[in-house]
User: Fold these one by one.
Assistant:
Number 1:
Amino acid sequence: MADLAVRNDPHVRPRLVEGDPSLHQVTEAVSSIIETRTPYSWWIAIAITASIAGVLKLCLGWLVYNGIGVWGNNQPIAWAWDITNFVFWIGIGHAGTLISAILFLFRQKWRTSINRFAEAMTLFAVACAGIFPLFHTGRPWRAYWLFPVPNTDLYMWPNFRSPLVWDVFAVSTYATVSALFWYVGLVPDLATIRDRAKTKGRKIAYGVLSLGWRGSARHWRNYEMAYLVLAGISTPLVLSVHSVVSFDFAASLLPGWHTTIFPPYFVAGAIFSGFAMVVTLMVVARWVFKVEHLVTMKHLENMNKIMLATGTVVGYAYASEFFIAWYSGNPYEKFTFLNRAFGPYWWAYTLMVSCNVISPQFFWFKKLRTSIPFMFVISLVVNVGMWFERFVIIGTSLHRDFMPSAWGYYHPTIIDMLTFFGTFGLFLTLFLLFLRFLPMIAVSEVKGMMATQKMHDAHLEAVAQAVEH
Amino acid sequence: MHTNTPELRDKTIYGVVAEFDQPSKLVAAGRVVHHEHGYTKLDAISPFPVHGIDDAIGVPRSILGYIIFCCGSIGFISVASLIYWAGGISYKLVIGGKPLFAWEPSIPPIFEGTILFSAFAAVFGMFAINKLPQFYHPVFNYERFGVATDDRYLLVVEASDPKFDIVDTQRLLESLGAKHTEVVEA
């Protein structure tokens, strides 16, 4: 129980790696996950998720065959589930970049155990997000028109004044930079896996992927510089991505969208939902793969604290929107917000507020934010709430705008629902592949963190001894 | 087996590899070898970046930052000129009476372009300076190389070093607390 006493003492920082394992044991714990024989449960899991991803494929095929009419989008709600899902998935990704870049710059050592995992989540979430605008074009094979490429069938350039074009730049840059950042982090760990490989196939595969990395001091010097710069440029990048996503709305003239609070409000919401998704997945993964000593309660608790903070910011943004609607004296703005809370979509609004504002407040209590089942449930609730937030913003602002004769109500079709459902299949399939073939924890970073901690401990001990004598 | 035998001397020798079990021992040994004994052709292999090793064995500062800055600037200029070219020269399109080119709406794409070019420079520049991919390197011939990506630290003294001597160098490294030393072929 001494351990528990230490854990509850606010003056003692809990260890980021529990049980004081050796560096070799850390390598072993992470590498063995992908070296053992594929468990049957993995095959079962991927069979399910791949089937769900198959549903996505069918839905998208059906959409391309028939046209956008298979979705429920129509006037006045021309943007509906597709954009909601796009913003939802993009937002999920933000936690990964926050962990890998912003927490790195702030020297938050606890990020090392979860950054690889969260970055993978970012990539897969962005892949899911990209599907929606791509297929909303109706002709995805013409999607290159979004990019400023000189082409023979469209004698024009994109309109660079449009936030939608900014969005193309922001999201494609984000996807590329996230992938690069992730790969750079993977290279030293892939070299570890290569050196442990027993079979020829694995030796070649991981040998090629690790590019012949040998951990030379000259390599590390440039590597650390590259990592620092990537963290430095990803930080404004991640903030810019959701800001630009929010410009899609804020730069319009629609009441409920046209507000300056949108960029910070969207970014906070994105981080909030992203951390919820990391917690959802991590709680399961650390238990299944027995890495509880590497991803400790301290990590989960910190993530819950970030959810509490960002959830509260989101709550403040909801309140602020209402205040401005009243304070601006703009009758359309005022109506939009009253209609949002008490109109036909009152149920979505209520769900959003209770999931996003009320549920994270439980994390003020240490007992609740360190309870695994509780945080799992809350993280799911937050994910639901954040989906509804995007739906409420998009749906309620569009369904009743200036002219009552043009009002309407949105009904999703079965294709809408199955497409969204299918993206979860794609997301989880990619995740299962990641867990099976790549080290889910950044081994070299964890080892570096442990070595620093050991040196720090030795120093403290030396000081203590010097004081005694 | 891996000692200073005559047949080994005939082959091309890459250098001597010494294995340490603590990062602090690696740094201490590196410092002695470089600063006290004047060896310059040194390298250290470790499973994670070891602090202080660069000064200990004389690894110069990374030049990567300058490369990234240049590429980032190219990204900035490229996207700015693209937007200027597209809207101001190639296809003049007046939208709402606004000027053909303005900085304000161009900032987001220019910013993203700068980031994208910088990220490519950071990653591929790092690989290029490190000469990666490089699937063969003499240091891989070290019999126990796998430990260097796990929990051991290697100090490499190359044979091309003017002070290199197959017997003395190996003895020196052993005297500095190396758990294992080995002559590695090129």
Note: Confidence is low (pLDDT under 50) at residues 1-7 of chain A.
Number 2:
Amino acid sequence: MTESVRLAPDHRLSRLRRPALVVGVVGAAALLLGFAVSREHFFQAYLVAYLFWLGIALGCLAVLMIQHITGGMWGAAVRRLLESATRTLPLLALLFLPLTFGLGDLYEWARPEAVAHDPILQYKQLYLNVPFFLARAVFYFAVWLVVARLLNRWSLAQDADDDPAIAIRMENLSRGGLVLYGLTMTFAAVDWGMSLDPHWFSTIYGVIFMGGQVLSAFVFVIVVAALLVDHPPLDGVFTADRFHDLGKFMLGFVMLWAYFALSQFLIIWAANSPEEIPWYLRRMQGGWQYLGGALLILHFVLPFIVLLSRDVKRRADTIAAVASVVIVARFLDLFWMLRPASAVYLSMHWLDVAAVIGIGGIWMWAFVGQLAERSLLPLHDPALVIER
Amino acid sequence: MSEPGKHTGPAGPTRAPVIQPGHTFGSVTDRISSVVLSERMPRLWWLGLGVGFLLVTVLLVAVTHLFMKGTGIWGVNVPVGWGFAIICFVWWVGIGHAGTLISAILLLLNQDWRTSINRFAEAMTLFAVACAGLYPILHLGRPWLAYWLFPYPNTMGMWPQFRSPLIWDVFAVSTYASVSAMFWYVGLIPDLATLRDRSPSRAGRVIYGMLAMGWRGSARHWHRYETAYLLLAALAAPLVVSVHTVVSFDFAVSVVPGWHATIFPPYFVAGAIFSGFAMVLTLAIPLRVMFGLEDFVTMRHLDNMARVMLATGLVVAYGYMTETFMAWYSANPFETYMIMNRFGGPYSVAYWSLIFCNVLMPQLLWFRRVRANVPLLFVISIVVNIGMWLERYVIVVTSLHRDFLPSSWGMYSGTIWDWATFAGTIGLFLSLLFLFIRFLPMISIFEMRTLVPEAEVREESP
Amino acid sequence: MSRPALYGLLAEFTNPTDLVAAVHKAREAGYRAMDAYTPYPVEEVAEALHVHDRRLPLIVLIGGIVGGCAGYALQFWTSTIDYPINIGGRPLHSWPAFIPITFETTILVAAISAVLGMLALNGLPTPYHPLFNAPRFALATDDRFFLCIEATDALFDEQETLRFLQRLEPRSVSEVEP
């Protein structure tokens, strides 16, 4: 049973590829139009959408490394899904480029005239300046690309050769890789997200980002796995037990998200200091409070209550439905965190929708393409070998 | 088809088993219950209990003196109004966390290696929480009025101040103590029945019999018992996170530089698990030798605990890093000064020692050879315990001793009574622990039986 | 039948596999009033006995909801109605500050419900039980596995049931005095 299993060309996931590309191209055209119409909206919409899709890919990288360290059937079952998502990182690195043209539109600290009147921004120039910002971005991507590339290459080598040394090598890289991911993602979150409100700071911010990315990865993988259950012979791998495992992780990370979010909110709310509280004040008025309330429901209360049920976690269709809700909530969460920096009132520009669908179309096209490249199951994963 | 057995596990080809081969149900029962039922205890046990009891006497003296004179005998004063009491409180609560983590979270994650250490770690939790709970009460000044902390209708017409993290602490710690005690007791019931049925003395049969509540291992009972145990684990897992989170709120919801940081909740929780696992190692390494339990607490356990320590240690290091970076990034002069004061101020020795103990030393655990070296592991675990105490010392003292107003800066150091109380709680902890080992099975017997190979129901061949 | 002075018949097995097989056969033979006793939880035995009690999770859920509501209500009522006092300019109804205690009381009451619910459903504590009269039953908490067919079963007949149990090749069969 360790022979290679390719994604069937007539499977609905494969058939999704072409429409995804069409949507992506149309979305990209719309984005170009949007850029011409409203440069400012374009970059803001693009940033949120980009970080959403990047979050899924990076979350998959993190989960991939976690499963290499912990082992277990759940990890082996979804490993190829995770790996395919990490192989989209080069594309995502490319998609980062448009942002570099809009730093001045996005970030106050990148506008010399704003910095000239602001002593705090002058102080932060040492860190928040365009060349260093770009150099850091290059460094982050370099780290992620190298780690993802090595893990993918060794994984392919493991398909050809059942040498246990390969598994150990991947495990060892994953340990260091997770540390690197933690460090790079923390600073990336500060650079790309936190510095939108350049006076504001919060030490848990990077942790919130990472927790969200890992959650994104789990819900994404659950949805893809649910699409694959009817793909023989994967029905024997994506069993009720596997969905139960993944569902538990999803529940855990939904709770963690609420925990991180509440920690930050409660601490800032209680201290009520003029440096920190404006971030929340802005997000608790002008319509944003409704989005915040929706987040509370969609990102925590609803999935939490539903996922308490064992049966929901064990059925592919129900767990995938919950996961789909959480995917939407993930986007709304980023939108709520990032967008109020430039918008006092809640409004969703058509560009916000175009960006997330456009980038998403291209990304899904790339993802499914990558998924079809290799066997859907790793051939010599120790956990799968034991199971058989 | 690759030949099965070539890979023995995801973590590599050579990992020690969770129980040495050759054991049967009977041998597991005998081996573990004999520690409780035997007439004699090893000399080291008497030594441990003796040292513990001696220190309890020190605690009694220190507390008596405190009750007579008041908290003035401690080093606390303006501006450092929170000293040893809170430092040791946080330290002890943190140590307790590993017990719940091992028993609840590892149970939920189906990690069978938890089985031989969970009972003992849960007991450690209870005793650590008992030691922790003493401090806030002693610090009240009028400890006989401690019940005022709880909301109850009273003639003064007053209620606790629910917006204060200190009252959250009352709820969190008392809930934690109660739930841990219930979890521990529920886990003990089947083993108490074993002791009831095996105890040679009538007193033993009566006492264990009453505690076992008539447990007879009925399949119907087991069914509900397991449900209850899993539910308790599912409740205890978020609870343990909440407890140290609330402890971190004691600091973080203030505005004091060095205390007010949003990273505090996860960073405190990681620190708690870090120190807790260090304490489990510190205790488990000598105990397994003392009672010859190497078959049950194997190298696999030590290795896994060392890995958890490394992982949580890295999270703690991450906390230090973000704190330092954000102190600069915040552009807040008080925050920046706080960090510079930690680096080079009067308490810098404590700061750099804690970095050595909590960040540098655990890096050795990356190496398999270090994790397999029991004496070295023991040393590292003690270093981490010291480091985590220093961490709380640095957080409490350096943040308070120089805050916003230079005119009210001051220095702090613990007095002989502070140290005596601290040593005394260590004694209390040790005494309770050694008494526990004497009277209750320190390893869960019934769960160990499930690890015996014949515990599995074989498929019948028709 | 003639002597009602019997609680049941107890068969002793040395491993879980034999016990599960015995339970299956007893079910097939039509016995219902029986229970198995094992030194550790054996899922297959519970399945063979058709034991599935789903009440405990519900009890715990209700306990948690009651605890959470009570915790929040306590804070709300004391802080805003019975003893309103301005602390640091915080609103009287400081809902963010009430979350931690609400969480703790939820867990506390849920956990208490789990323990008391389990004990109550199991009928514990049971200071006296006929099974403790069986001399070998003490091994149920050590290394032996027991099946007890109770006298209340419709099919129970002292001789017939004894023969049935002996056909299962147990290590021993003994009568249990009530």
Note: Chain A touches chain B through 48 residues (CB under 8 Å).
